[in-house]
Amino acid sequence: MDVRRRQPKPPLPSAARGGGRGPASSSPPLEPPKASDALPLPLYLTNAVFFTLFFSVTYYLLHRWRDKIRDSVPLHFVTLPEIAAIVSLIASFIYLLGFFGIDFVQTFIARASHDAWEDLDDDVNRGFGCTDIVAPLPKSRDPAPAISALSSVEDEEIVKSVVDGTIPSYSLESKLGDCRRAAFVRREALQRTTGKSLADLPLEGFDYTSILGQCCEMPVGYVQIPVGVAGPLLLDGFEYYVPMATTEGCLVASTNRGCKAIYVSGGARSVLLRDGMTRAPVVRFGDVKRASELKFFLEDPVNFDTLALVFNRSSRFARLQSIKCSIAGKNLFTRFSCSTGDAMGMNMVSKGVQNVLDFLQSDFPDMDVIGISGNFCSDKKPAAVNWIEGRGKSVVCEALIKEEVVKQVLKTNVAALVELNMLKNLTGSAVAGALGGFNAHASNIVSAIYIATGQDPAQNVESSHCITMMEAVNEGRDLHISVTMPSIEVGTVGGGTQLASQSACLNMLGVKGANKEFPGANARLLATIVAGSVLAGELSLMSAIAAGQLVKSHMKYNRSSRDVTKVC
Ligand code: ADP
């Protein structure tokens, strides 16, 4: 068997890559202008020019002043060269103040704001944990503490102020300029307010700066979730060790057994059918006719190129693929779909949609934008639109499991598996009125991988849509199993993927960060790994049920042996 270990996967065919190409069309985020940007010269030359200017015009003006006093000429009589010298003096003074004085000014402002903070009106700030007013967060990823000394006496005062509501808890990061200290103070205040100990919730060992303004607000610690590894998963000729963050006993062991069955049967194969994130705003018109006019305009292929041009300005990686409309009376729901490179893409697609809405306002001034998301997207809710149309990555994955593997590794037989699948995953789910739930436990595997790799766990809802098919092949001896998952929403950049632990798990799979050569290839590979792991999980759990092992193994691995009454 030709098996390659954890090498980067070759790029997917261009059809599967889904239009992630094209020239860079958006510029990088603008930084605020600095004083040193005043001239298009290296910093030392810019400084030299302004220093020379400052001292020479000062010397010249003083010289002229002395001459005027000597000749009894009034000082306010100024010549053209003198006016130029005064302007140069002011300009160079502003530059030098901007360059060298800024630290002094900032220190001064920090002191002043600290004093003001102490005097804040109780009525404004009362209420621990008030989150409806969001304080501006420090811009820097690693801000220098505005209040440098870390004295416990000082911390004690701040904790007291948070408890009595003088200092809003949400403002601690921006006020202290030290994320770890802010978490410590908030946690102390929380313990005093609730009277409950947080001793078992760890505080140390986490980089709170890395979540600032991006992943979690008002942190008081972090929860530890064990990460197990299943594998190797042999998928498309490559081996992957799959990280799974879970507290459900049996899950990793069971997925691991499925991986083994797949491995010894020659591996699984996957195909990525589609790659496009969606966002659907809702807009309202005065009557049905106008709503229909916009629907026809958006769906007319003649207008697509113009709309795509406007949409794609949101990011170098966003490429509009389609717009699907649905009308409810005089309200129009427009489902925009676009490829998003290696990002899961919600931010990207939302920005693109906003561009198009702004653009449409000129031709449809009577269009009332009710919401950038009108739930036809549909994000984090079970919805038929995702099940049928797909959202994120649509993947199908299959494996042929040999008869002896079914017997020896999975401890069951092909006929029992096929019958169970038909009755449980297909018929039983139909009886239950399932929406995308034609599987045994896809969400178990999806959630565990999502948490380990920094995906948005709430998207487990539609990402776990899956239909598991089983069929006896080769005259009934072997088992053909497949999982079809239309809405796997994953990314390898943005959100929680950049945090240290999650990033390490992505790295283990060889899909960390952006794929420089083929933008989007890392996220697409991750989606196929998710589907392959679900295949392994389905195979193993279905086998356990078919063999009547489920209760037995749960009793062994999942049932706590501790006497909980004593723990309480
Ligand atoms: P999301 O849209 O999933 O919420 P973000 O907008 O937070 O993700 O993250 C995407 C950011 O990463 C964008 O600013 C984008 O320009 C940048 N980026 C860098 N490389 C890539 C890549 N290969 N694919 C997608 N985005 C990338």
UniProtKB/TrEMBL annotation:
Biological pathway: Metabolic intermediate biosynthesis; (R)-mevalonate biosynthesis; (R)-mevalonate from acetyl-CoA: step 3/3
Keyword annotations of the record: Endoplasmic reticulum, Glycoprotein, Isoprene biosynthesis, Membrane, NADP, Oxidoreductase, Transmembrane, Transmembrane helix
Annotated InterPro entries: HMG_CoA_Rdtase, HMG_CoA_Rdtase_cat_sf, HMG_CoA_Rdtase_CS, HMG_CoA_Rdtase_eu_arc, HMG_CoA_Rdtase_N, HMG_CoA_Rdtase_NAD(P)-bd_sf, HMG_CoA_Rdtase_sub-bd_dom_sf
GO biological process, one term: sterol biosynthetic process
Annotated SUPFAM superfamilies: NAD-binding domain of HMG-CoA reductase, Substrate-binding domain of HMG-CoA reductase
Region (Disordered): 1-33
Chief location category: endoplasmic reticulum
UniProt EC number: 1.1.1.34
Membrane-spanning intervals of the chain: 41-62, 83-102
GO molecular function list: hydroxymethylglutaryl-CoA reductase (NADPH) activity
Location in or out of the cell: Endoplasmic reticulum membrane
Highest taxon above the source species: Eukaryota
Keyword Repeat: no
CDD domains recorded: HMG-CoA_reductase_classI
Record field: catalytic activity: (R)-mevalonate + 2 NADP(+) + CoA = (3S)-3-hydroxy-3-methylglutaryl-CoA + 2 NADPH + 2 H(+)
A Pfam family that the UniProt record links to this protein: HMG-CoA_red
Entry-linked PANTHER family: 3-HYDROXY-3-METHYLGLUTARYL COENZYME A REDUCTASE, 3-HYDROXY-3-METHYLGLUTARYL-COENZYME A REDUCTASE
Entry's family note: Belongs to the HMG-CoA reductase family.
Listed name of the protein: 3-hydroxy-3-methylglutaryl coenzyme A reductase
UniProt organism field: Eucalyptus globulus
UniProt lineage: Eukaryota, Viridiplantae, Streptophyta, Embryophyta, Tracheophyta
